[in-house]
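can u do me a favor
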């Protein structure tokens, strides 16, 4: 079924709209003519203050962003500050806007952050699982026909020694067969929070007839979409430290500085990857082709798979074309994960809906290195080089050294954030 937007578009809540993916997504859907309500509790900015980390590319506040967007395009993104773990705030949002779709990015999304210590593990699972549960109840009670598009992760599956299907597997056991959720072997307390979410979503589709799309997304790279490039005030965040920065983004910053690329362990770790522009396209396809009532649809959202060694080689080759040599350094792996394994994950559903992938090539890598190169004086090399969290022993001396230090010189430093909650608040 294709859901055609009326002339005024669909009313869509974008939850986690202050984040790396959420902000470009809010603009993308606004440009397409949807009525976008951008929601975030700004927790991510406080986690940065807590860990002394920051976006390499300077980012504006949400009120500044939506104002600039309106000025440049004439389109309105409604901004609301709300915490998903506060049910009254969530319920208020649903009562006010009665959305036809919800795109849910609003979680603590770093595996290393969830492995710092007990507080961070508990916080991650409470924030993510209870936020999603609140959302499920609000949809059920206020707008049962609403389509939930939830960002899960490929890391829910882990790295099994069999092909990874899209959400479900047909199993024959002792002469009987069934189609069951694919087994999960997540690699961090963060990734496990996504498994718990998936189970809760699947359950509510069965018992309440919810319509849901669970997108098991691979690692996203890149920083430019059609909209972020319009003006520096519309830029999205770009993380490079070892807690929030993902592998390819970190390698591009390391390359821009001429530093060794930090491959953890043997580098055979293989994951699915996609360009941030394809994230925009995949979610738009899911929105325009909603799940049926009672359907818990699972799409594996990535376009290519690479090992860490392959990514490092691609970055190194891109620099070689400019006559530059790159050192690849295999450092001791702070994580507990297989470093040499079978990996073959299906990702056909989004292609069937019409996705045209932007494949990872040298042009993209060169453009990211070039863009981040403009901000190299903001990089603290320690944050770039040294992993600050170890899976076996938690936050290490780098974590302790940087906790509560704030961002680069000149940036606002506020009191350390508590792992707590904020109330709904309109800030436009
Ligand atoms: P991000 O950290 O940049 O953004 C997440 C946003 O959610 C932040 O702005 C944060 O303040 C907000 N948030 C967190 N908890 C909240 C709560 N309780 N209430 C309201 N807002 C809350 O993350 P991202 O990279 O944009 O990722 C978005 C989503 O996509 C996450 O769910 C993540 O797990 C998933 N994902 C990301 C990637 C990736 O490579 N970035 C890959 C796969 C899946
Ligand atoms: N790695 C390195 N060197 C680095 C950083 C990472 O070798 O400097 C390795 C890690 O050990 C891991 C792989 O790269 O094997 C991926 O790590 P990552 O930090 O790029 O990504 P990950 O921790 O898996 O998490 C990111 C997002 C998360 C999302 C996930 C998608 O932060 O929100 O869920 O990608 S997936 O990996 O498919 O689960």
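np, heres the sequence
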């Amino acid at each position: 079924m294709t859901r055609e937007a009326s002339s005024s578009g669909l009313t869509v809540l974008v939850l986690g709209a202050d984040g790396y993916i959420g902000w470009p997504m809010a603009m993308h859907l606004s440009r397409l003519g949807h009525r976008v309500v951008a929601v975030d509790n700004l927790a991510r900015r406080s986690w940065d203050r807590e860990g002394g980390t920051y976006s390499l590319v300077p980012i504006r506040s949400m009120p500044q962003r939506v104002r600039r967007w309106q000025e440049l395009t004439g389109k309105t993104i409604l901004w609301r500050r709300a915490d998903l773990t506060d049910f009254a705030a969530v319920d208020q949002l649903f009562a006010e806007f009665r959305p036809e779709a919800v795109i849910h990015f609003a979680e603590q999304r770093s595996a290393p952050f969830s492995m710092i210590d007990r507080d961070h593990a508990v916080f991650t699972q409470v924030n993510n699982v209870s936020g999603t549960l609140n959302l499920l109840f609000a949809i059920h009670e206020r707008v049962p026909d609403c389509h939930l598009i939830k960002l899960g992760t490929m890391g829910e599956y882990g790295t099994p020694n069999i092909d990874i299907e899209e959400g479900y597997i047909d199993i024959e056991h002792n002469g009987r067969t069934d189609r069951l959720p694919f087994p999960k072997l997540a690699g961090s307390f963060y990734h496990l929070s996504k498994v718990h979410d998936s189970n809760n979503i699947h359950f509510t589709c069965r018992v309440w007839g919810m319509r849901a799309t669970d997108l098991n997304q691979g690692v996203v790279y890149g920083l430019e979409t059609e909209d972020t490039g319009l003006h520096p005030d519309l830029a999205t965040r770009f993380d490079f430290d070892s807690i929030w920065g993902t592998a390819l983004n970190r390698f591009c910053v390391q390359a821009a500085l001429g530093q060794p690329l930090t491959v953890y362990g043997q580098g055979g770790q293989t994951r699915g990857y996609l360009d941030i522009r394809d994230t925009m396209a995949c979610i738009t396809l899911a929105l325009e082709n909603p799940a049926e009532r009672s359907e818990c649809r699972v799409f594996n959202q990535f376009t290519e798979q690479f090992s860490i060694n392959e990514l490092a080689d691609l970055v190194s080759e891109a620099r070689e074309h400019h006559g530059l040599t790159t050192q690849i350094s295999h450092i001791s792996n702070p994580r507990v994960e297989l470093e040499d394994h079978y990996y073959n994950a299906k990702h056909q559903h989004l292609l069937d809906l019409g996705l045209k992938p932007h494949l990872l090539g040298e042009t993209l890598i060169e453009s990211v290195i070039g863009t981040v190169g403009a901000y190299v004086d903001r990089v603290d090399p320690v944050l770039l080089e040294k992993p600050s969290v170890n899976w076996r022993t938690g936050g290490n001396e780098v974590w302790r050294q940087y906790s509560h230090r704030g961002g680069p010189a000149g940036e606002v430093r506020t009191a350390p954030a508590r792992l707590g909650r904020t109330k709904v608040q309109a800030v436009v």
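The pocket of sulfoquinovose-uridine-C1,5'-diphosphate (ligand 2) is lined by residues 109-111, 153-155, 191, 218-219, 246-247, 250, 262-264, 269, 271-272, 308, 335, 337 (CB under 6 Å). hope that helps!!
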